[in-house]
Specification:
It is an enzyme of class 4 (lyase). Pfam families: Lyase_1 (PF00206). Its EC number is 4.2.1.2. Belongs to the class-II fumarase/aspartase family. Fumarase subfamily. This is fumarate hydratase. With 209 residues, this protein is mainly alpha-helical. The chain has 2 domains: 155 residues, Fumarase/aspartase (Central domain) (Fumarase C, Chain A, domain 2, Up-down Bundle); 34 residues, no CATH class. The protein has 6 helices and 4 strands, in the order ββαβαβαααα. The chain has a two-stranded antiparallel ribbon. α1 packs antiparallel against α4 and α4 runs antiparallel to α5. It is elongated and about 75 Å long. It starts with a strand and ends with a helix.
Length: 209
């Protein structure tokens, strides 16, 4: 049964409902993949403010080429080093894709938690795997712990996005000094999302009935 405003609406199949989830995730992954090329632009050779003062001629190109060969990643010299040093729009864009995935995953998790509610007095349209059955006073009770873990991670990523955007907005004049705030939140978000999605797929989705 389809639902709007959490109330019964018109019929749909479970497959149709899950096809919506798949579409959300595909779109999020596509957004993330498209954002990656922006992260490959380097500000090497811009020196202090982007003018390249005191950098040897050809330094940026040669160093960028060496890093690309060493890592196997197609790094390139940034088109405008003034922008690359004073702002971090590419990181904002890429983290926005992580946030987009987190928002979609949170929606999916909340739906699954409600669909599995009960089982006697809830919807009980799906059954979650019993990863941690039982409690001190309710034997056999199965809590949606994997979903709760996922949605907490999603909340953290959404919060990290706000902090990262604040850092990116503080690129005063020719240098953004909030780089530690930006990169710390970005790395945490990427790490948390990767770990959470792996655990969710392995310990929840795979055993869904």
């Amino acid at each position: 049964m389809g639902r709007t405003h959490t109330m019964d609406a018109t019929p749909l199949t479970l497959g149709q409902e899950f096809s919506g989830y798949v579409a959300l995730l595909k779109k999020g992954i596509s957004s993330l993949e498209k954002s990656l090329s922006g992260l490959q632009g380097l500000a090497l050779g811009g020196t202090a403010v982007g003018t390249g003062l005191n950098a040897p001629c050809g330094f940026a190109e040669k160093t960028t080429q060496y890093i690309a060969e060493m890592t196997g990643i197609a790094f390139y010299s940034g088109a405008n080093l003034f922008a690359a040093i004073s702002a971090h729009d590419d990181l904002v864009h890429a983290h926005g894709a992580l946030r987009q995935l987190a928002i979609s995953l949170n929606k999916i998790g909340c739906d699954l938690r409600m669909l599995a509610s009960g089982p006697r007095c809830g919807l009980a349209e799906i059954i979650l795997p019993a990863n941690e059955p039982g409690s001190s006073i309710m034997p056999g009770k199965v809590n949606p712990s994997q979903i709760e873990a996922l949605t907490m991670v999603c909340g953290q990523i959404i919060g990290n996005d706000a902090a990262l955007c604040f850092g990116a907005a503080n690129g005063h004049f020719e240098l953004n000094t909030y780089k530690p705030l930006i990169i710390a939140n970005f790395i945490q978000s990427a790490t948390l999302l990767g770990d959470a999605v792996h655990s969710f797929a392995l310990n929840c989705i795979r055993g869904l009935r």
